[in-house]
Amino acid sequence: PGAGRAAGVRRLRPQPSEEPPALEEDQDLLLAAAYVSDAQYNRNVPFETSPRAIRLYYFYNHWTMQVAIYFFICVDLSLALFEEPALFPLPFLATSIAEVLCLTAFFGRLVHFAKVTPQMVFWKDTKNICIMVTIALTLIDLIIYGSLEAVNIHSVRWSRALRPVFLINFPESRQIRRTFRSIRNTLPDILYVFLLFMFSVMIFSLMALKLFGDRGLRTVEGLPYFTNILEIAFELYVLVTTANSPDVMMPAYNFNWWYSLYFITYIIINTYIFMSVFLAVVYNNYRKHLKNEIRKLAYLKRHKMMEAFNILKVKVGTEFVVMEARWRRLARTVMPHISSPHLELLLRISDEGQKGYVDKMNFLR
C-alpha cells in the first residue's frame, strides 16, 4: 500500500448499487409477470424492459384502456349511420367533432404504444404505419369536405372506406388479423381450382351458344335466349347456385325436352362435383394455415414463459427452479384477485413433490 501511494495510485472504493436489491427484485417480478400475462392473453408485443416502460406497458394493457379503444372504434364505425346520406342525419359539425375525438384517441393510443416498444420495432411495423397514414388521410378529407360544405359545394367523404383499418390494425384486434392472414394464405391455394371451375363454365357457355344461339328462342320476357356469350356465362354461373333453376332452362326445354340433358349434365359437373371439390380445397387449406397460426401462437406462449422463468430462476442442486415465495408473488401480480384456496391449489399442482419450489417443466405448464 505504501508503494502504491508513492506511485500515485489510489484504491477505488466499490460503487454502491444504483437500486436496492428489494427494488430490483420487484422490477424483475413485474417484468416476469408481464411475460406471463402476455402468454396468458396470447399477446405478442415486443416491449422495452426498463422500469418506466414496464409500468407504461401495464397501463397500456389495463382493461379500461382496452374498453376505451373499443368504444372509440365503435363510435367511429357507427358515424356512417348519421352522416349524409343517412336516414337520420346529424349536422356535419356534430359528426366531425365526434370523428376528431376518435382520431385523437387513436393517435394517443398509438403514441402510448410507441412509448413501450423499441423505436426500430415500432417504425418497421406496417400496422402502425397504416394507422398513422389513415389518420392523416381522414383529417385531410375532413378539412376538404368541411371547406367545400362551407361554400355550398357538395362532395364525397372518401375516407369513410378507411375506417375499418383502425379495427384491424390495433393490437387488440389480433384475432381478426389471424383470421385475415389465414384467408389471405388460403387464396393462392384455391386459385387453381377456381380457374378450373371458370374454365368449365366457359366451355359450357360456348356449347350453349352453339346449341341455342341460332334457334331463335325467346325468354318469357321476349328477349333473345342465349345469344350473347357473356350473358350465357353469367346465367350459368348463377345456375351453379340453382337460384335461377329451372327458369333458365325452360325456353330450351319447351323447344325440345332433350335439351334438358345439357342442363342436367352442367348441374352434376359444376354444382355437385366442382363445388364439393372447391369446398374441400378451401376447408383443408384454411385448416392448414390456421393450424400453423396456432402452432406459432403456442411457440410464442412458451417463449414468453421461458423468459419469465429465466428472470426468476435460482439454482437448487443441479437444476434451476423458482422458489415458492417468488412463485406466490408472481401469481398474485398476474392475477391480483385470485382467491387463497385457488392459489394454494395451483401451487399444489405446480409443486408436485411439495419441495418448496417449482421446476421448469411445471412452471411452463
In N-to-C order, the SSE pattern is HHHHHHHHHHHHEEHHEH
Q: What is the radius of gyration? A: 33 Å
Into which percentage range does the β-strand content fall?
Answer: under 5%
How many β strands by DSSP? Answer: 3
Biggest beta sheet attributes? 3 strands, antiparallel
Percentage of residues assigned to helices = 55-70%
Low-confidence stretches: 1-18
Strand neighbour order, sheet with most strands: 1-2-3
Q: Mean pLDDT score, rounded?
A: 86
* Structural class by secondary-structure content: mainly alpha
Distance between the termini: 57 Å
Shape: flat
Q: What's the total helix number?
A: 15
Task: Tell me what you see in this structure.
By secondary structure, the chain is mainly alpha-helical. Among the domains are: 46-170; 183-282, Helix Hairpins. The protein contains 15 helices and 3 strands. The chain has helices at residues 2-6, 21-40, 51-60, 63-78, 92-116, 119-124, 126-150, 164-169, 174-212, 229-240, 250-255, 260-312, 324-334, 340-350, 360-364; strands at residues 314-316, 319-323, 357-359. Strands 1-2-3 form a 3-stranded antiparallel beta sheet. A hairpin with a 2-residue loop joins β1 (314-316) and β2. The two termini are 57 Å apart.
Quick gist of this model?
The protein is mostly helical and about 375 residues long.
Which key terms come to mind for this protein?
three-stranded antiparallel beta sheet; transmembrane; disordered N terminus; 15 helices; membrane; transmembrane helix; 365 residues; mainly alpha; Helix Hairpins
